[in-house]
Amino acid sequence: MTEYTRLRPLPDPAHLPVLKSDYVLQRPALGLGPLDPPVRVLLLYGSLRERSFSRLAVEEAARLLQFFGCETRIFDPSDLPLPDQVPCDDHPAVHELREHSLWSEAQVWCSPERHGTITGIMKAQIDHLPLAYKGLRPTQGRTLAVMQVNAGSQSFNTVNTLRILGRWMRMFTIPNQSSVAKAYDEFDAAGRMKPSAYYDRIVDVMEELVRFTVLLRPHGDTLVNRYSERVERDQPITTLADQAGITAGR
Questions:
Q1: How many domains in the chain?
Q2: What is the pLDDT of residues 165-215, one digit of tens each?
Q3: CATH code for position 90
Q4: Which residues pair with 73 in a beta bridge?
Q5: Secondary element (H or E) of residue 79
Q6: pTM assigned to the model
Q7: DSSP 3-state of 32
Q8: Which residues of 161-196 are buried (b: 16+ CB within 10 A; e: fewer)?
Q9: Is residue 48 part of a domain?
Q10: Do residues 118 and 82 make contact, with C-beta atoms less than 8 angstroms apart?
Q11: pLDDT over 80 (residue 243)
Q12: Positive or negative, the Cα torsion across 62, 64, 67, 70?
């Protein structure tokens, strides 16, 4: 079994003091598709500060996703090299990030807004995820939720940029999103999010991510099957059985 060294532990994963239990659906995707196996979600954040609000927001998202029955992994980018810094990207942090992306069915990207856009830490992680890797697609066909934290008033520059990147990475970015204004006021000393409309929106976004992932789960390979890639792989369709095999992802 592979030992991963760049996954952040999630403090108090089952402790959700702000969540109003009378209003929450513990199985938000019930009836939309197969719920077994659990949805696998990779979460990325965009700051290396000791008190990183993008990381704290991602941790709140991960707790909610686990409450909804998902498996989560939070990647720690603290020793990730810059893109092209290491020849052939041969660095253990790069390899591990790509393995986590291949493992995932869905992803959550959360970045601070810096100079009107995402941080370099956030962009470096995305840049290390190639469209094709060892004959596989680390991001194609996965669902994506985007979030941002702000030092000042609410902005949507960062989530808009993340949406552009998600489209470029051939991901299905869900309609809902989260933007937390004055993030320094929204978390307590223990790093837990206070009751607010911002927290409620993160619950909305995670519910929606689970729903879209389960809804698309049986059809992901078909939806992203491309003529150009079939030509590149020299995979002509000669029979109905060939067509069924291709759309089933074989």
A1: 1
A2: 999 999 999 999 999 999 999 999 999 999 999 999 999 999 999 999 999
A3: 3.40.50.360
A4: 42
A5: none
A6: 0.93
A7: coil
A8: bbbebbeebebbbbebbbbbbebeebbeeeebbeee
A9: yes
A10: no
A11: no
A12: negative
